[in-house]
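Request: When convenient, would you put together a sequence paired with its structure tokens?
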Amino acid sequence: MSSIKDRQRAAARARLEKEMQERSAAARKRRQKQAIIGTAIAVVVIAGAAVWIVTALKDDKKSTSTTSSSVPAGSVACTWTPDTGGGKVKDVGTPPATAPNTGTATLTMATNLGNIVATLDKSKVPCTTASFTYLASKKFWDNTKCHRLVNEASFKVLQCGDPFATGKGYRDTDGQGGPSYTMAEENLPTDTNKPYPAGSIAMANTGQAGSTGSQFFICSEDTQLPASYTLLGTITSGLDLVKDVVKAGDDEAFKASAGGGHPKKELDIKSLVMS
């Protein structure tokens, strides 16, 4: 009887040991599979990261080369920033993204008093020249008037360039208009004694960097101003017309704020062309 029970217990132990061995083997297989899968995922992730890095580097190189190659030789890149200053906007689009920086351009204003001609040096004001060329092609300044005059000691200028300063007489809003973009200043004066000499044509702005638009001023005499305004060019013909307008005086409409007023002698721009 005891021998039968012993045999039964031995058989039970053998089955239990076999089950434990089978379970242990199955567990080892699961761990091996998990390790292999984990390693494979890590390899995929690392490989993917390597591919992304290589691709990103290629894209970066491609982008850099595209940017540099997109500016032709003898040109510079220009930035036209949307105007958010709150003034009146005449939207005629924006100039090309690049501009020639060699040679000169001629600005000719046909006015009710005669022609005023200026020379612009593209090596000094490439983007401003490009802006003038573009706006002139859109007849931006045609049939406008010079809306502000200042006739003070060492500050004698005639300001023009607001596309909305049109028609007979003056309005309170004259001087608030411009294109849909602004640009960075160029060719700022370095001569502190004569920053804006007689015959200079320079760009007006709000006093903030990068606020140059379409308005400009002509200096009838040497003018002392902060060196914050782009020196656009030099009047080669017609400065006498500007001097006559300045001498005629103004109505002091801006005396309490910016200075000066509306010119008593109107100067109307019939057309402004660039060549």
Summary: The CA atoms of residues 252 and 261 lie 4 Å apart. Helices lie at 2-69, 126-137, 239-247. The two ends are 126 Å apart (CA to CA).
